[in-house]
Amino acid sequence: MNPPLILIIGRIGQVGWELRRTLAPLARIVSVDFPDIDLTDGNSIVKWVRETRPQVIVNAAAYTAVDKAETEPDKCHKINGAAPGILAEEAKKLSAVLVHYSTDYIFDGTKTTPYTEDDAPNPLGAYGRSKLAGDQAVGQVDGHHLIFRLCWVYGARGQNFMLTMMRLAREREKLRVVRDQFGCPTWSRMIAATTALALQQVLAAREPGAFKGTYHLAAAGQTSWHGFAKAIVGQMPAEGKKCQAIEGITAPEYPLPARRPACSVLSCQKLQRTFGLQLPDWEESLRQVMESA
Question: pTM of the entire structure?
Answer without folding.
Answer: 0.95
